[in-house]
Amino acid sequence: MSGESFLAMRGITKRFGDVLALDNIDFDLAKGEIHALLGVNGAGKSTLIKILSGVYSKDAGSIIINGEDYPLGSPRAAIDAGIAVVQQHPELVDDLSGAENIFLGQEATRTGLFSPVDHEDIRRQAARLLDRFPIEIDLDQPVAKMPAVDREIVAILHALRLENARILILDEPTSTLTEREKVSLFSMMEALKAQGLAIIYITHHLDEVSEIADRFTVFRGGRNVASYTTENAREQNISIPNLMLDAVAGNFFPPYSERVNGEVVLEAYGLARHSDFEAIDLVARKGEILGIFGLAGSGIDELSKTLFGVLKPDEGEIRLYGQPVQFRSPADALKKGFFLVPGDRRAEGLSMEEDVVFNTTLANLSRASLGGLLRFGLNRRETHALAERVDLQPPKLNRPLRGYSGGNQQKVVVAKGLYSKASVYIFVEPTVGVDIGARAKIYDLMRELSENAAVIVMSSDCDEVHGVADRTIAFCRGEPIGVLARNVSRDNLFHAGLMGGIQQ
């Protein structure tokens, strides 16, 4: 890493009406550096990146790249300045190959009546790109058949397809990757760094900072509050959560429930989908949170969809308050008092083009309407109360969901669940892409919901399950490991999900 400042942002200020989103921000990035940008939702990270990528214009300040002043102000100007951005959820065309996605919009065509796309030229361009950035990937394969890490690599190569790319911005690139896939992505990032690329890395996974970043900067309340090299932070025992929250974070999981043997709400006996998971027995009660831990491919996602009527079980029985229930569809499960917070909130949990009121009331239309007509005034008032309850930031009820951060989108999913007044809540990967502050709020809401409903948390984050659940079940390659004691150690829970048994 070079010590020189390749990118220098000085005094960057941005207002949205009365809201001061960025307050005289300074930010530096060196050539050949991976610099993590950290902060809770609303801290100003996204605003700074949108200014750097030309989506927003700054109100004040200067942007210096390699000693030259760049006013930016448009995406085209940012691209011309050599700034490449990979969004958290890159838009790829599944039916096209990796190479075709990389050069989408820049396809060479053969001369002729219909000017067909020159696929051979695309392959040659892709080969030249891999000569610049030697990565093991089959770019002839359709994107739909690629693992998540290869899709992320395709998105990065698309951003770097222009030879003038000098600064790469990665927004939550590991949010959908397994631990093994992260290794491949980090290897690519190290290779890009070695070629002198300057990388801004936005993440909510704080454990990744020391693993991949040379330096990190923390934003809080629209200000740059700290910047350290990872080595110095380690030597000084700096707590990143404390910097982000301006308080000693401590254990941000809510306390365990003191209630035992609460009313049984949900039971499952011998529930199985043989292609995904084998027979599982579970009991979920009021007053506690049941946690189910499993790594990617363990079967927990399929279990959640089976409990919610998306998938049909091969055998077994589900009971609600002691009575057998069967679901014809997810809508039927909703009517019977089940609510699923899915792992992919964008694809399965929200309508991204609709506003907060629409999304919140969608789960209980019988409550949201009277005589077939929506109760607009009442729905807005009730949504406003729920937005306050989940601490939605900003609480703009008319804003489409695509305009919110990942953490605030997840809060809307939780508000949707609160509006449904369900008997059973199933949370799957509830804090993927969610910052530490929003995570604490979501965990508190889970604990609140558990007072009057059954709450099940399914996650591949062992710390999350261990921290939030009163009782836990581990899944390993479709095989459930029985209910584990409340005092099971984090290491034993992880070992059960990884190896299929408790360490002796």
Automatic annotation (TrEMBL):
Pfam families in the cross-refs: ABC_tran (PF00005)
Sorted alphabetically, the keyword list is:
ATP-binding, Nucleotide-binding, Repeat, Transport
The protein's matches in Gene3D superfamilies, at most eight in alphabetical order, are given as:
P-loop containing nucleotide triphosphate hydrolases
Where in this chain does the record put each ABC transporter domain?
A: 7-246, 260-502
Q: Which SMART domains match?
A: AAA
Any one Gene Ontology MF annotation carried by this entry is: ATP binding
Q: Does the keyword Amino-acid biosynthesis apply?
A: no
Q: What CDD domains does its record include?
A: ABC_Carb_Monos_I (cd03216), ABC_Carb_Monos_II (cd03215)
List the protein's name: Sugar ABC transporter ATP-binding protein
What organism, scientifically named, is this protein from?
A: Halomonas flagellata
